[in-house]
Specification:
- Helix content is about 65%, strand content about 10%.
- The protein is α+β, with helices and mostly antiparallel strands.
- It folds into two domains: about 30-140, no CATH class; about 170-415 and about 430-540, no CATH class.
- The chain has a six-stranded antiparallel β-barrel.
- The longest helix is centred in the N-terminal third of the chain and has 41 residues, at about 145-185.
- The protein is elongated, with a radius of gyration of 28 Å.
């Protein structure tokens, strides 16, 4: 199914960009070639005897600006510039600096040239008096801005994907080395034995004493403690072990899908990143989202596991379209059950749970998890290596063997990361995200989600850095302790980057047929978002 999603991201991103650019060109949105009057204030008197570059300021009257671009501003626009005059031709070229507070059309014009905040152009001056000149300005031409954005996004995200994979090499080598020692010492099998009743229910196809069990347990535990860097190597090792049990190489098994459904639900006891952003923004209680995030992620986990278990009863064969047609009835029944569960939770059980959460002391819980998170990694390394030494394992040699495996896995995921992140970048840069927000706005109004929070909800499954940027921007605009600020922070703590997780984990073992992994992950995301909206509205109102 990732094949269809990948093609859809590319088609929607490029198609939206083409439609937008053609529309802008037909309307002459950027007024290419048109002159408009400005006043230029030089840092020193104009020397009419020679060509010279001056520091200057452009002052654009708000009425003239609105007449040209149909964009209203409250006062005259003042912009710094470098102006090079040719007195003989009574003309000049300039490089104009566009700040972040400038009108949107000027920022887009600057972006068209490749630089973030520079606009070039020419001016012809009509009159001048010392340091003040009256001139007519023509900005550089702007065309196919969205397609240029797509090109830049594709290249940037491809580079980002490689950087992510390279950054994983050291972490992968460390943790898979430690895991190799623990595995040879029998510790992983011992941990799996303790959790055998729960794991057997979730993963009936995996033998209780198989190494995959221990790796999955370590991955889930690390995720719950917020140890993202430690969780990924454990997860990749788990997928590699699960693939050893896979009779149909290249096709995801039920256990793989269930495991990734738990991962994409993002159940974490403390959303450290969201709390840090809130604290940096000056929140009076940055940790207030702990309870709401656990509630949202808990609902996402339950929905993800349920979806994985139900959808595995409808195996994909004969292509996605045929499977969807055959399984449509079952899918509709399943979605109806999920909707019923959500409604029951909102009207009954959810109310009781929300009331209970009001008695939790976030600061105590936060402090406990912070301490646990700090000591967890050193304690795991010491305990695992020490246990191996006690059991007479040749710890150094086994660590090195595991580390080699970690390096190979990190390199293997690069093509999958490049493909997925490039498609996401094109989808965003092309403007398809904005169209999707417009389409979904009536639904979000119905469930009480503010329109300002919708971009965060849509971006979270696609990109971790993208959703972090959106969350930071919303918190900056509305405040960390506002209703919207708390809601987007809870979104971040209640869901995970589904597309990234699937690309990395399946890419590590060359899985082409992901079966129902993506629907299960997206159902978990939707449940997490809906639960977050519900709990935040109940506790903080709006």
């Amino acid at each position: 199914m990732l094949n269809y999603v990948w093609l859809a991201l590319l088609a929607l991103g490029i198609g939206t960009a083409l439609v937008t650019d053609i529309s802008d060109q037909s309307r002459d949105k950027y007024r290419n070639g048109e002159k408009f009057p400005v006043e230029v204030i030089l840092s020193e008197s104009l020397d009419t005897s020679r060509t010279k570059t001056y520091d200057a300021q452009f002052q654009i009257d708000k009425t003239d600006f609105h007449r040209l671009y149909s964009e209203r501003v409250d006062s005259a626009i003042v912009l710094p510039a470098k102006v090079t005059f040719n007195p003989e031709k009574r003309s000049a070229s300039f490089v104009l600096t566009i700040p972040g507070s400038a009108p949107g059309v000027l920022q887009k014009t600057a972006r068209a040239a490749g630089d973030e905040n520079d606009v070039t152009g020419t001016l012809s001056f009509r009159t001048f008096n010392g340091t003040s000149l009256q001139a007519d300005v023509v900005f550089e031409s702007v065309s196919f801005l969205k397609l240029k954005d797509i090109t830049n996004a594709a290249l940037d995200y491809a580079g980002t994907a490689v950087n992510i994979a390279i950054g994983l090499i050291g972490i992968m080598a460390l943790w898979l080395g430690v895991m190799k020692v623990a595995e040879d010492a029998g510790l992983i099998a011992l941990i799996a034995k303790w959790l055998k009743p729960v794991m057997k229910k979730l993963f009936p196809d995996v033998p209780p004493d198989h190494p995959a069990m221990g790796s999955m347990i370590m991955n889930i535990s690390a995720n719950m403690l917020g140890l993202g860097n430690a969780a990924t190597p454990f997860g990749l090792k788990a997928m590699e072990e699960l693939d050893k049990l896979n009779p149909d190489k290249g096709t995801a098994t039920n256990s793989m899908v269930t495991f990734l459904a738990i991962n994409t639900a993002g159940l974490t006891l403390i959303p450290a990143t969201a709390i840090a952003v809130r604290a940096a923004a000056g929140s009076s209680d940055p940790a207030i989202i702990i309870g709401t995030s656990i509630f949202g992620a808990g609902c996402a986990t339950i929905a993800g596991i349920t979806a994985a278990k139900v959808l595995e009863k409808f195996p994909v064969s004969g292509g996605f379209t045929n499977w969807f047609r055959r399984s449509l009835k079952g899918i509709l029944i399943f979605l109806s059950i999920i909707l019923l569960i959500v409604l029951v939770g909102i009207t009954g059980i959810g109310t009781l749970l929300a009331g209970a959460l009001q008695f939790i002391k976030p600061e105590y819980f936060k402090r406990f998890i912070e301490i646990l998170s700090i000591v967890a990694i050193p304690a795991l390394i010491i305990f695992f290596i020490g246990y191996g030494a006690i059991k007479k394992v040749r710890v150094y040699e086994q660590f090195v063997e595991g580390a080699k495996e970690g390096f190979n896995i990190a390199v293997r995921i690069i093509p999958y990361l490049v493909a997925m992140l490039m498609a996401i970048g094109i989808f965003r840069a092309g403007g398809a995200m904005d169209w999707l927000i417009y389409i979904l706005k009536p639904f979000t109004d119905l469930i009480g989600m503010p329109a300002e929070a919708l971009p965060m909800a849509l971006m979270r499954p696609l990109s971790g850095s993208g959703s972090l940027g959106i969350m930071t921007e919303i918190i900056k605009v509305h405040g960390p302790d506002s209703f919207i600020g708390i809601m987007v922070s809870t979104f971040f703590g209640s869901t995970e980057t589904t597309f990234y997780v699937l690309a990395v984990y399946f890419g590590a073992i060359n899985i082409k047929n992901t079966r129902h992994a993506l629907p299960a992950g997206l159902i978990a995301d939707i449940a997490g978002i809906l639960a977050a909206v519900f709990i935040v509205r109940m506790l903080f109102g709006h």
